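Q: Convert this sequence to structure tokens.
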Amino acid sequence: MSGLTIGQIAKATNTKVPTVRFYEGIGLLDSPARSDANQRRYGQEALGRLSFIRRARDLGFSIDQIRALLDLSDDRERSCCDIDAMAAQHLAEVDRKIADLTALRRELGSLLDQCRQNTVADCRIIEALAPPALV
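A:
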């Protein structure tokens, strides 16, 4: 029987073997055929699908979003409006995270700028992290 072993498909897509098994377990990847020795054997379709999943994960799409994208991609004649909407929503979430991280960076930078490098008792960072004194 030909085809790729789980190790080969994992290596080809830069995915860990347990992750490939996980994707099978949750139905993102179909269970492959098995060899006489009961080894998984993956074809080119599985390789393409795993590459798609991996790329979508690299772009930050959730498992549920990837499942929806895969379902939508199965109908090649369908309008891509739903896919565009999903990508636009994901982009808005990425922009929100960037804004949050930018604010966090600004706050940490401000704390470091106030550092006098004296003692812990004078440490502005520890002061900012400590709960306010109870009155």
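Residues 1-78 form a domain with the Multidrug-efflux Transporter Regulator; Chain: A; Domain 2 fold (CATH 1.10.1660.10).
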